[in-house]
Design brief:
345 residues; five-stranded mixed β-sheet; 42% helix; globular
Length: 345
């Protein structure tokens, strides 16, 4: 069973092919990705209309590239999958429209995929994939969630952000420090030159007793420190504030993840989403979990950001689990706001 996956939820256009034959984890055959970072840098963030237009330009050439890489013809594709949500409405409509049109032309079924489920399952494409059941820390864009994952389609929300997500805290703090878009990676790089103990920043909800997150207060604290520094926020001072900000975000993520493992009694932790590529987060999670005898799993670094491989994979794993809502009707909609809890079976 060959699945073609198309991702267009935000500022990356991704296309991939996986082979979901049999009961083994789907095998990635080929993938291609185009990032719009250079285009959006001039605006300091993603411009939805520009993102949508660029997806239109990129998706078909990327599809052709993937088919050529895999030495596969469109006639060999069994299912066309696409990101149905959450994400930017216009960007999602591009991927959905192309996927449904292509499926209709081929006379093949089409399948809408939850973007976060793609991230959640992406570590199964790594060289060291996890086994069910596990706790998942989802840190992707505007989403920070802890989930209990018993199997494909069986997810229990343990905690989530009540305001800004971790990725937003990185990006907004970076903007306050005058760093370029995308802010998260830029802040992490600068933090490597700073002293994480230089500024005492809050760790919101760290001792709340639950597994929810809140990062808006941290962003406000960074703003306050930046204003206090004023023109002095250059060189080492800026690096110190970046390091202190990163340390605060990472500490909250690590300690909440450990608490989730303790509450569930599970011995596996999966970390997925763009923030999962953060070096300090990986180092501290690895060290803390090693002491607890817990295994930690990550997607490969190139699969942490949005990509077509995770969409094709999620579709393939749902097909294998008998949960695939495949259809041959080609009318479509998208769900810019879509809770992962709705995918639980």
């Amino acid at each position: 069973m060959i699945v073609l996956g198309i991702e267009s939820s935000c500022d990356e256009t991704g296309v991939a092919l996986v082979d979901a034959s049999g009961s083994q984890v789907p095998v990635l055959l080929a993938q291609a990705l185009y990032s719009q970072i250079d285009m959006h840098q001039a605006y300091g963030g993603v411009v939805p209309e520009l993102a949508s237009r660029d997806h239109i330009r990129r998706v078909l050439p990327l599809t052709q590239e993937v088919m050529a890489q895999a030495q596969c013809s469109l006639a060999q594709v069994d299912v066309v999958a696409y990101t149905r949500g959450p994400g930017l409405a216009g960007a999602l409509l591009v991927g959905a429209g192309v996927a449904c049109s292509l499926a209709a032309a081929l006379g093949k079924p089409v399948m809408g995929v939850h973007h976060l489920e793609g991230h959640l399952l992406s570590p199964f494409l790594s060289a060291d994939p996890p086994e069910f059941a596990f706790v998942a820390l989802l840190v992707s864009g505007g989403h920070t969630q802890l989930m209990r994952v018993d199997r494909v389609g069986r997810y229990e929300l343990l905690g989530e952000t009540i305001d800004d997500a971790a990725g937003e805290a990185f990006d907004k703090s970076a903007k306050l420090l005058g760093l370029p878009y995308p802010g998260g990676p830029a802040l992490a790089r600068l933090a490597g030159q700073g002293d994480a103990q230089a500024f005492k920043l809050p760790r919101p909800l760290l001792h709340s007793g639950d597994l929810d997150f809140s990062f808006s207060g941290l962003k406000t604290a960074v703003l306050t420190q930046a204003k206090k520094l004023g023109e002095a926020m250059e060189g080492q001072a800026r690096a110190d504030l970046a390091a202190s900000t990163q340390a605060a975000i990472v500490e909250v993520l690590v300690k909440k993840s450990l608490k989730a493992l303790e509450q569930t009694g599970l011995q596996r932790l999966v970390v997925a989403g763009g923030v999962g590529a953060n070096t300090l987060l990986r180092e501290q999670l690895n060290a803390a979990c090693k002491k607890k005898g817990v295994r930690v799993y990550y997607p490969e670094l190139h699969l942490c950001t949005d990509n077509g491989a995770m969409i094709a994979l999620a579709a393939g794993m749902r097909i294998q689990a008998g949960l695939a809502p495949m259809r041959r009707g080609y009318a479509f909609d998208v769900k810019p706001r879509w809770s992962l809890a709705e995918m639980t079976m």
